[in-house]
UniProtKB/TrEMBL annotation, chains A, B, C, D, E, F:
One of its GO terms (molecular function) is nucleic acid binding. Residues 158-292 form the HD/PDEase domain. This is Nucleic acid-binding domain protein. InterPro entries: HD/PDEase_dom (IPR003607), HD_domain (IPR006674), NA-bd_OB-fold (IPR012340), NA-bd_OB_tRNA (IPR004365), YhaM_exoribonuc/phosphodiest (IPR050798). GO terms for biological process: rRNA 3'-end processing. PANTHER family: 3'-5' EXORIBONUCLEASE YHAM (PTHR37294:SF1). SUPFAM superfamilies: HD-domain/PDEase-like, Nucleic acid-binding proteins. The keyword Transferase does not apply. It holds the Pfam family tRNA_anti-codon. It comes from the Bacteria. Keywords: Exonuclease, Hydrolase, Nuclease. It comes from Lacticaseibacillus saniviri JCM 17471 = DSM 24301.
Length: 326, 326, 326, 326, 326, 326
């Protein structure tokens, strides 16, 4: 029982484990033999792993649902080059055993309070009064901004990932602003803070993340634009003034290409830069995560978010800290 | 002087003319010989035609500007397969000679009052109360909707073209609703009426039409979405309810493809139908206009809005009434 | 035995059934355990559903073939989000039990005789004598036109679907003709009736539909063009005259884009309209079918014929009648 | 006058010339100074070159038309990197001076009679009786096949170019057949002979080549398919037999890709090979022509038919005989 | 035991076999029941076939590895339309039983010595001294060139396939050179011999072929360019001279399109021809192989290397010799 | 004469000027009236501007060539929205008047010596000995690296632009390295310094920049790879070791996409980052240059290097220093 403190990815393939984990998702399916099983994804702060509970009874189906913490006994194995858990047995964790889903979420590698402080430092730098007020108001009205992931999968898919991704872009933006005097710092910072805020409406939250109906039918880019417009109305800021059109444009255009869902392509220097920094930070996050799960000297699995490319992890030298766990 | 009642396209190539026309645009340029000239586009209700005023003096440049009515004496000619006017002389028209730009605009083939009535008939058919109220409010708040063209060029590029295009789609939609019982009539009608209303903000108006800064940086699709959201707020309609997400979706998705500027692709039956009817009506309008300017047995010029295709005008049979003049 | 009158899609998931059904297709495969099974598709007028007959004997394989009617006892279940039948037992139906495959085909929602009458009404409207004679001759020579589906899967994939799809386009075309005076009614109607007639050669028929060798190597667009040319020869119509080139063009161009298999793009107004109406009717049919199989408040499965999009079925309001059953 | 025997491309830039030439095309246009000029293309067996006749009188316009032979006095010059003629004077040639347009056409580098014989040799090799009879019949019915160019511009754009291109493909095909025993010789030869025969209907002929209405609305691929079907009917060959579907497929698929106008993609080995050899021969012809007009050590102009690439002509070594003059 | 001389593809579906075969690849996986199995590919000179060894013990996993020869007892079956072996039993072959992997490799249809001689004949024809010396040196330095396959799968995926593919291109090139006098024979031959030589570095060899790290990170096109540059340095040939730039260009451009991995597109006639012949020979090889495995009157499986097309094998006439076995 | 110290872009449209300028390019052409003129591009440190010398004599053509300094008297004007010079008179500058082309080149905004020092600082940070030695050797062997532009036009098209672009990327890379611990600093710096060094072979130099034959036929990406391989050979570094494959990969892949000319796509984290930073710095440079030439409140001209987009210059706030002049 000494390995109770170990986490999912502390075990090697072939090793037995007995630890508490969170059920991230649980889909009931019918096997080829006609019996039901549950396709499970377990999660703790070290990462996520799949498992199947064969010959699932109705009682199993009733109790093993997304969001539950279970005591899992099993063995880590490889199935088609991906790790999975072969379940020996499992049961729901009791309160005393630490049945708190929050304890099992992957989190940003910096504490939430530090991320809040760091982003607020950047807000101070926004010298255009209208932009500053809107950014403050939206941060204030959306405290869940600091809890959400940046995506359902792909990149920064962990609690606090949205704010951490935003902060990472701001730090890159700071370097750009220092290096190129033609860049409007206030506009780039304001755009960076707001650009993905619509994801708090597009998705359901950090646990069992799904897309909402608004997310599917409207999309996070238009949703945040609506929020900006509403904030400006409430603050009695003139929406037809150039500065407001610029702020909205930088946010609307941040996907860079129409086929990626932006209704307009970047037509301001800061819109182009925000798009480039967004892609740069997302790529580094995706690759660092992928490298963690690849052996030195091997290629990663194909990465959907990187045009299905595989990346090579060199045999030595770099280490790849989990970009989603502090 | 008896031909004063004739209009630009009533003259043949090679024929002399002396008529009042509106200057639609006037660009000052430098010729290869170093002297200035004015590249003009003249317009009356029969259509538009280009001309050049060579060796333009500063006085010429000062007085011949877009929006002015002039008395034009010249000859219609062909230049690189397109008609143009060779200017003999011209001067500003006096008040008595009818210096009213409104008289020279191409207009929708139905009177504005009939278009208003016809659209209002469709509004009655919108039985969802929220959609009905929003459509009414936006029509009421945007009386210029009945004056605007549907585009700067391409299709329905005449005064009242926006409303006439909307009405044409509604009439097609009525046939679809009658034929297919699975279609939500209220949603299709509401979406049709609102889909291009953002163009009243995207463009400057029916005379000397240009894109506004908001049109360039935000685009008419997001602009009308903002208007819907504002209207709902004022009418205290719940924006998070399914019906509002559906209405906004139908409008946001009406360009059909992301690369055409819709931030989301159609995910409702009515969104798909609205997109298809929008394209159908625009195509028929573009082709009818092009056929008017082609000889029977010839091909039209290449049409930018139809993937640069040329279309064949048969030698006999059909007539092609000007789709933009009543 | 009282549920003998119920049909496949009248049962809920988890419910037992015992009904006669048609075997639409039967593929013999080897399971992972090395034993043979038959992958079956059952069909009645309510739709189609898959099933697997495990551990199939040689006798099973010999008797359970496409086109046979069986008495099926089993349970409806969900497998990977799609309905399937878990077979308890089955045997061939006797003559007395109603062993007539025709009784189990999905059919167009209007009786064949009414479809024939309705199409003939449109033929009357074709005033160009050459087009009228060719249309009459080809309808006369291809009585199977009224029996075929419009496609193997995708849209209107039921007996009589080809003629019903044609009639739906004609009805839309009638609205267009009434609304836009520049459209040549005779050409649009003639093109609409002929456009997909090559499918009677491209496919094998309404039961166990497959593509023929001619369908694969020549394609239905060129096959119908050949039929038009042959008809003109027999009727001693001048193939080099403009009207025949126009009719053939409208048919050849109806897929709209070269990459969709048309050897030429639309270069006549009526060719463009026919293409647009063809897509519109096919889309409405595909979506209505998909909505029928989705729950209110859910998304449909991804639709191959709609660029793999999923569509949202609203929680209330519309009903979606089976577009392929009268 | 000794240079009367010299031809257009025997003169250097800057050199005066006085020779008879054919007017290939003559377009009347209006210059920037408002006066008319004729944009001419002159042609003799050495190639084609442009010129402008400034301040053209109505008499000039009346007499200098495509198809006329003129006595041209002028100077060869470079205009925007392309050769052109500066006209000193010109007049219509008299009968005695050799006013025969046929003498000025570029021609295939082999005499027509030899091309006919060579193609007939290949016909002997077609051992499938149906294919052989159809090929013979179509060659017999289309004697103009030996006079037509293979294209209006691009490749083999000279009298006899169509047959010469066909023969070149047959010779390549012979090498392929000898090298790969899996290839059906009869099918490849029959397909090669027929593949472009529809161009005799698609275009107007070797002088002043234009596309016909049938060429524009139907296209040469479907036109030759119709001819094959007609021939089979007359010869009472069963069109539904596999061999006829194969022959038609090879011809229909020879553009290789749907977006290049083939209604089906190659699905037979011989269809794939014919497409590849067609492209190979066309490329070599285009490049050899382009190299002729480039200086050693320079790049050719951009070639539309080669994806707008420029090709490098090495400083020494190869010579590039005119691929279109015997 | 009399069928010991028969090979894998000499057996019909359903027939028992007992023969020695080579294990081409062996992947250990976990079955749905949680037990391990080995996914095997067996190979002899008649081709390759898959099999699964269920419930594999650790001893099985240890001994049945790629490169081993085993005595296989089993039955040939069809699984999802593809042939596979159902294993009855198997054991490692002893030395006496012929445990030599080389005996089980598929090979080019001409003996290696003849291929070497034939290629050397072509080397004699390269009259440019620099190109001749480089080709000789690289052939001399890379004797494995005659042992390698041309690809891991796709086309010429057998021992000696690289040299045989090269020779096939040279033979086609010879026909082209004889037919078109504008082609530089030396350049085309030199380019053809060198174009794929980088594959000897890109892949690991004819047994258990995999891509090397250099193959993945640099690619065979740049690898052979490096080899040419190195050879020129050692032979003290001026790399900046035109002829060396030409040779390198022909090799670098042979994939034809940037998206196929060539860093430059063809800009020399010979580069374009080499690309076309490379595709032609690869296509014929792929199709001939696919036809071998299809029944007359059927379509082949979808071919990845031919844009996922299926090809039709006619019911009679042609035979399709194994393109990879002499 | 007091304005002799003013430079080209210090004058307004309509203003007369009399200053020395460098002829950057001079193309002789024939005007529509048949007379020759010289199309000139003048240049000084403030930028480039076009002009035409009409009715050019042979003497004019002989003396006014690229690379000459002239005393120019003329007027700045607008022609089709772009500034140009209307020439009053011009003559070659004498030695005393400062006939030194170097004085008229646009230059990087930092002195060359500081750029050299700054890049050398980064070299110190490359701790992999092989990479460090290769970078040092190539910088040492290519002193012209500090003189070349980064491109013929597009971005950093000024003397020293190549090194300045490199340094800008290094500075961005420094920020990235500091922020993300998973990045290999040595690899990113070494790749950044080498990535565009092949441009010193691909182009002719900072004056009258053209592409060399090697540039056209091989391309700068393969040319620098060759240089790295050569350097490694001379330094006796093992080219097959992983670190050398990694360095070459980062350089070869820096265009990011095959269609942009990289023979392989990025498969290392550092390769992806280098590509992203290369694009970021190039975009900022292109946009800053374009903003300089646009008026506040206007859009720039369409930028070829930015997918033909136009960018909006806000009415106030930012200033845009010339990114190519110190």
């Amino acid at each position: 029982m000494t390995n109770m403190a170990k986490r999912l990815f502390d075990f090697q393939n072939g090793e037995d484990l007995k630890i508490p984990v969170l059920i991230k998702s649980a889909d009931v399916r019918v096997a080829k033999n006609g019996k039901k099983f549950i396709a499970l994804v377990f999660q703790d702060q070290s990462g996520q792993i799949t498992a199947k509970l064969w010959d699932a009874s109705e009682a199993d189906i009733a109790q093993y649902k997304a969001g539950e913490v279970v005591l899992l006994s099993g063995k880590r194995e490889l199935y088609q080059d991906k790790p999975q858990i072969k379940i020996h047995s499992m049961r729901l964790a009791t309160q005393e055993e630490g049945n708190d889903p929050q304890q099992f979420l992957q989190r940003a590698p910096e504490p939430e309070s530090e991320i809040i402080d760091a982003i607020n430092e950047f807000v101070f730098e926004i010298t255009n009064a209208n932009w500053n007020r809107i950014v403050r108001k939206l941060l204030h009205d959306h405290p869940e901004f600091y809890e959400f992931p940046a995506a359902k999968s792909n990149h920064h898919a962990f609690a606090g990932g949205l704010a951490f991704h935003t902060l990472s872009i701001l730090r890159l933006a700071q370097s750009v602003v220092n290096q190129y005097s033609s860049v409007n710092k206030s506009l780039l910072y304001a755009g960076a803070i707001l650009h993905d805020m619509g994801k708090t409406i597009e998705m359901t939250g950090p646990v069992s993340t799904e897309y909402t109906l608004a997310g599917n039918l409207i999309g996070h880019i238009v949703l945040v634009d609506e929020a900006i417009v509403e904030a400006a109305k409430e603050l009695k800021i003139n929406l037809e003034a150039e500065d407001m059109l610029m702020l909205r444009h930088v946010v609307l255009a941040h996907h860079g290409l129409l086929e990626y869902g932006s209704p307009v392509r970047p037509q301001l220097l800061e819109a182009q830069i925000l798009h480039d920094l967004d892609e740069l930070d997302a790529s580094i996050n995706m690759l660092t995560t992928a490298y963690q799960h690849a052996e030195p000297g091997d290629f990663t699995e194909r990465l959907f978010g990187m045009d299905n490319r595989r990346f090579y992890r060199p045999t030595k030298g770099q280490t790849y800290p989990d970009p989603g766990t502090n």
